[in-house]
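QA checklist item 7 of 12: single-chain prediction sanity check.
[x] sequence parsed
[x] length recorded as 335
[x] structure emitted
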Amino acid sequence: MIKDKKLKLKLKKNRERRIEREKREIQREEKRKKRNNQLIQERLQVEINEKKIKIEKEIKISEDYNFSLAFYTCFYGSDKNIRFQYHPPSSLKYDFYYFTNNKTMVNMLKDSKWIVIFDDVFILDDIIDSCMVAKYIKSSPHKFKQLQKYTYTCYHDNCLHKINIEGVERLIKSYFIERNYSHILSQHYFIKGSINSEVKHALKKYRYFIQKNKIDKYINKQINSGLKIVTNKHATTCFIIRNMRHNIIQEIDDRWYQHILDCGILCQDSFFFIKQLYSKYIYIMGGKWFPPEPVFLSTNITMNIKSTAIYSRAAPPLKEYTEIDKNKNKTSIES
């Protein structure tokens, strides 16, 4: 009897000790989980704080940096021109220049925030000549005294109606100040890195179609010189940021303009080969619609103010001229 009682008591104590051990183990496990969760939360909070600081720095970049920067666009031609349009400057922080030889446009802009530069060039209705005049300022801002005083310039076609100023400032900081690029352009939003694709698309428009022989001759000349017809990225030249103080900027732009004279008004064609000659200095942003550094929004999409897109494109007031239109009005051009 006594032995049975002792055994029962021993078993009871063993059970109690086992239960106690299990409780302590459960408590320790709960503490471990709690500590792990706390560490995870702390790490997440650190990441959130770092991202918050980064975002705040990017938001304040306009206050932190006040670059010697000018934006400019142009319009050359008569009132019938397809690009006879303008949009308000995207910011009052920097100077926005509008070069034109059209007095009607000058009068339209006189009460706006644009700095209007009247270029006393005879107004041409010719579909090629007016466009070639615009190509000169597009490719060679260093030739214009109004722009020579700036450290950086940003060219944009006059159909682009909203420029992300903070985005331009970030690009200047990242690729001009921290790195040694002379030009920043956008990757074309639907044409891949093939010159054949560029030409095929361009020849659908009459103004390029009538220069087909000139374009073909130019391309063959570049191929014979050893340049490629396919590259990783194809740039659109409707938006160009320049480091005007780069030691090679004038050489690149002068050479591009000589290529434009050789190729004709299809300046994206000539720049396709220029970028191969100076790939070390030309930075082409991102991919199709929303790359790491988003480039632009499509036609008719209104730009969100909080968007990181660099610019957005306004819908043209008139339809583009194509090969089908070649027997119609030939005075409209896209500069």
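[x] summary fact logged: Residues 70-325 form a domain with the Spore Coat Polysaccharide Biosynthesis Protein SpsA; Chain A fold (CATH 3.90.550).
[ ] second reviewer sign-off
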